[in-house]
Amino acid sequence: MMQWIAFLFFASMTLLSALGVVLLPNIIYVILSLLSTLVMVAGIFFVAGAELVGALQLLIYAVAIAVFYILVLTAVPWEKALKKDSHYRVEGVLTFPILLAFYLEIILVFLLGISVSPKGQIREFIQSLGNTQVVGSILFSKYFFAFELVSLVLLVGMIGAVIIGRKEDKTYEDSSP
Amino acid sequence: MEVLIILFPFIAFLLIGLFGRRLGDLPSAIIAVLGSALSFLFSIPALLKALNSPFSVKLYDFISLGSYTLTLGLYFDPLSAITTSLVCLVSTMIFIYSIGYMENLFGQWTYKFYAYLSFFLFSMLLIVLSDNLLGMFFGWEGVGLASYLLIGYFHQQKYATNSALEAFVMNRIGDWLFLFGIFSIFYLFGNLNLLDIFSKVKEIDPNLLGLAVLLLFGGAVGKSGQVPLHTWLPNAMAGPTPVSALLHSSTMVAAGVYMVARLYPVFESAPQGLKVVALIGGLTALFASLAATSHTDIKKIIAFSTMSQLGLMFLALGIGDKNSAMFHLTTHAFFKALLFLSAGSIIHAFHHHARDIYEVGGLRKYMPITYATFFVGALALAGIFPFAGFWSKDLIIASSYEASFSLGVFVSFVSFLTAYYIFREGFVMFYGPERHKGHFEEEPHEAPSVMLVPMVVLAIGSAVVGFFEGWYMDALKEHKEMHLNIAISSVAIALLGIGLAYLVFVKRFLDPEKLYQSLKPVHTTFREQFFTERLYHKILAGGYMLYSKVLYATFERQFIDGVVNSSYAVSSALGSLFKGLQQGRVNLYILFLLVGFSLLVLITFLGGR
Amino acid sequence: MKIVPLEAYLILSLLLFGLGVFGMIVRRNLVAVLMSTELALNAVNVAFVGADSHLGLVDGQIFALFIIALAAVEAAVGLGIIVAIFRLRKVESSDELTDMGG
C-alpha cells in the first residue's frame, strides 16, 4: 500500500516537472524543472527496488549533469543572442496528432502481447544479498565487455567535449609567417 | 565439287572487298573476271551430268526448328544447269567489257564496283541453283541489294541515288509479297524443299494454292519490273552500262521469270494464278513497247524493251508454255546484253556525256564494229531469221495463237512495235546527219578491243543460239514443231516494223518532227508510261509524306514530346517538394524521426497481424 | 514486491517519452532541446527498471546504468557543441542554423 502511494506521488511529480520542462518559456525555470524531474525519477527507482541505479541517478544526473547545464546557461552570455519566441507554434500543433498516434501504437503493441521473458529467477538472491551486490556480480561477469566499452566511450566523449568547447587561438589573424 | 560454282564469285567478292584497296583496280577486275569464268567452266561438267539425271547437293543444315530443319543446298536439273551456264557466260563477257568501260574511273576505288558485281553473281547463282525456297530468298534479297549498290554507284549524282532507292523500295514491296508467298507455301506444305513441294502439289486445295501462287508472283512482279511495280526499271539506267547490261536485262530481272518457271508445277495446279500471270505479262508487254516508241534516251529505250520482253515471257508462262518462255529468256540474255553493250560503247566513245539518241548520228562510219553488233542485236530482238530471237519468239507466238487467236494478234502487234522502236533507235544513231558535231568536242572512235571482244562473242551467240532450240527442248523433255505459216507471218510483221522505221527515219518519208508535234498528246501519254510514274510519286509517296508530317505535328510533338517534357516537370515538382522537407532545422528532423519510427513500429509489430 | 503493476511503469515511461520528444520538436532554444533529450532517456530508464522489478532480474538495471553513463557523455559533447556554435555565430536558437537545408 505504501508503495503504491509513493509510486503515485513520485509519478505525478515527475509528469508535472516534465510538463514544466517542455512548456515553460524562461530557460532558468526549465533547468529547475529538469532537476526536479530527475530527482523524482530517482524516487521511482527506489520504489521499484533498484537502489544502486537510483543512487547513481541522483549522483550523476541530478548533480553532475544538471550542474553542467546550469554552468553552460550562465557562463555563456545569452543577452548577446537574439531574443525570439521560445516555442515553435506550428510544429507543436503538427506534432500533437502524430504523438497521439504513436501512443496508440505502443499501447496496441503492448496489449497484443509481447513475448514473455523468464520470471523471477534470482529474486531470492536479491532478497538475501541485497540489490547492490547482485548488480555488481552480474555486471562484472556477464556484461563485462559492455562495461569496458562504456568506459571507453566515456573517455572519448571527455576528450571530444574538451576539444569542441575550447576557445580558438586567434594567432593567425595577423597573417605573419 | 559443284559447290565451287557458287563459291568462286563469293570468294572473289571477299577478296576484292577486303583487299581491293591494296590490290588496286585492275587486279580486282581480273579477280572478278576469273571468278566468273571459273564458275562458267565448272558449270559445264555439272550441266552435262544434270542433263541425264538431275541431282542435289546438300550444303548444310541451317537452323533446326523441332520437326523441320532449314537447309541450304543446290539442285541441278536441266533448267537450272543451263541457266547457270548462261548466267556465268554472260557475266564473264560483261565483266571483261567493264574493264574497258570503267577504265577512266580506275584509281577512284573502282574495286568496289567489281566487289558488288561478284556479290551479285553469287546471289544470282544462289537463286538459280538453290534447292529450297529459303536459299532462293537469300539470293533474291542479295540481288536486290546488289542492284541498289550498283545503280547508285555514281553516288554523287542525286538522280542515281534516288533511282537506287526507288529500285530498292519497289523490289522490297515485291519481296514482301514473295515472303508471304513462302510463308503460305510452308503453311500449306510444311516444307520448303522444291522436290518435296513438287511431289505433294496435287494434294493441296487449289484455292489456297492460288493465293500462295499470287503472293509468289508478286515477288516476280517486283523483281522483273512488271506493272504495277515497274517505274524503277527505266530509272535504273542511272547506273553504269555494264550494270544495266548484266542486272537489268539478262539476269536479275530474269530471276522473276526463272522463279515462276522453277515453281511451275505449283503454278500449274492453280490455274487462276496462271491467268493473272498472263494478264500482267501481256499488259506490261504492250505498255512498255508503247513507252519505248516515244522515249529518246539511249538506254531507256532498251530498258523498256527489256520490260516488254519479260512481259512476253510471263505471258508465255501464263498460257502454259514454260519451255518457250525459258528459251526466250536464254536468247534474250544474249541479245539484250549485246544491245546494252553497244549502247555503252557509244556512250563511252563520247566520254560518258552522250544521253539522247538525237545527240548522236551517222556513227556508222566511225564505229563500224559497234554498228554491226548493234544491228545483230536489233535483228535478234525483232525476230528475224536466222537470229536467235526468231526461234524463241516464234515459239511464243505459236503458243499464243494456240491459246486464242486474239492473243496471237496481240503478241504479233507487240513484236511489230518491238521491231519498230529498236530500229528507230538504230537508224537515228547510226545513220542520218552527224548531230554530235555540234554537241561534243570528242571525235567518236571505236571502242578498245577489251570492250569489243565480249560484244563480238555475244553477237555470235545471238546469231547462233537459236539453232540450239532443238537440243534445248530435248533437254527439257518437250517436243515442239515449227509452224511454217506462223514463222513466215512473224518475220513479215517484223520486217514491216523495220520498214516503217527505215522509211520514217532514214528516207524521211514522213517527217518525224511534224508527226511528233501533231501526235503530241498520244505521244506524251506513252512517254510518261501512262502517267504511272507521276501517279506513284504524287499519290503514294506524297501521301505518305503528308501523313508523316501530320503525325509528326500531332502525335510526335504533343504526345511523345509531351510525355518527355512533363516527366521533367513532374520530377522537378517532386524535387521541390522534397527539398521543402529539408529545412536544416534540427527540430523538424526530430519530427520526421518520430513519424518514421511510428511507421516502423506499425509495420513491424502490427503489420504481421 | 509486486504491488505496483508493470503497466503503471510502462504508462509512466510512455508519457515521459512522449513529452520528451515533444519538447525536442517544439522548443527553440538548443539547450532546451538537449534537456528534453535527457527527459526521454530517463523515460527509457524507468521502463527498464520497471520491467526489472516485475520480472525479478537485474539485467535491466545494468542497462539503465549504461544509459546513465552514456547520457552524461552525450550531454557533455552536446553542450560543448552549443558553446562552440554560440561563439561562432552568437545565436542560440535553431532558426539560424539552417546551413544544411535545401
Describe this structure as you would to a colleague.
The complex is a heterotrimer of chains A (177), B (609) and C (102). Chain A has 177 residues and is mainly alpha-helical. Among the domains of chain A are: 1-77, Four Helix Bundle (Hemerythrin (Met), subunit A), CATH 1.20.120; 122-165. Chain A has 7 helices and no strands. The model of chain A is unreliable at 115-121 (pLDDT under 50). By secondary structure, chain B is mainly alpha-helical. Among the domains of chain B are: 271-520, no CATH class; 535-607. Chain B is built from 26 helices and 2 strands. Chain B has a two-stranded antiparallel sheet. In chain B, α10 (241-250) runs parallel beside α14 and α14 (298-318) packs antiparallel against α15 (322-349). The longest helix of chain B is centred in the C-terminal third of the chain and has 49 residues, at 532-580. Chain C has 102 residues and is an all-alpha fold. Chain C has a domain at 29-89: Helix Hairpins (Orthogonal Bundle), CATH 1.10.287.3510. Chain C is 76% helix and 0% strand. The radius of gyration of chain C is 17 Å and the shape is elongated. The model of chain C has no long low-confidence stretch (mean pLDDT 85). Chains in contact: A-B, A-C, B-C. At the A-B interface, α4 of A face α26 of B.
Q: What's the structural blueprint in terms of helices and strands?
A:
The complex is a heterotrimer of chains A (177), B (609) and C (102).
Chain A: H1 2-23, H2 27-47, H3 51-75, H4 89-111, H5 123-129, H6 131-141, H7 144-165
Helix pairs in contact in A: 1-2, 2-3, 5-6
Chain B: H1 3-23, H2 25-52, E1 55-65, E2 68-76, H3 78-101, H4 111-129, H5 133-151, H6 158-189, H7 194-200, H8 206-224, H9 232-235, H10 241-250, H11 254-262, H12 264-268, H13 271-294, H14 298-318, H15 322-349, H16 368-382, H17 388-403, H18 405-430, H19 436-439, H20 449-464, H21 469-475, H22 484-506, H23 512-518, H24 520-527, H25 532-580, H26 586-607
Helix pairs in contact in B: 1-2, 1-4, 2-3, 2-4, 3-4, 3-10, 3-15, 3-20, 4-5, 5-6, 6-8, 8-11, 8-13, 10-14, 10-15, 11-14, 11-15, 13-14, 13-18, 13-24, 14-15, 14-18, 15-16, 15-17, 15-20, 16-18, 16-20, 17-18, 17-22, 18-22
Chain C: H1 6-26, H2 30-55, H3 59-89
Helix pairs in contact in C: 1-2, 2-3
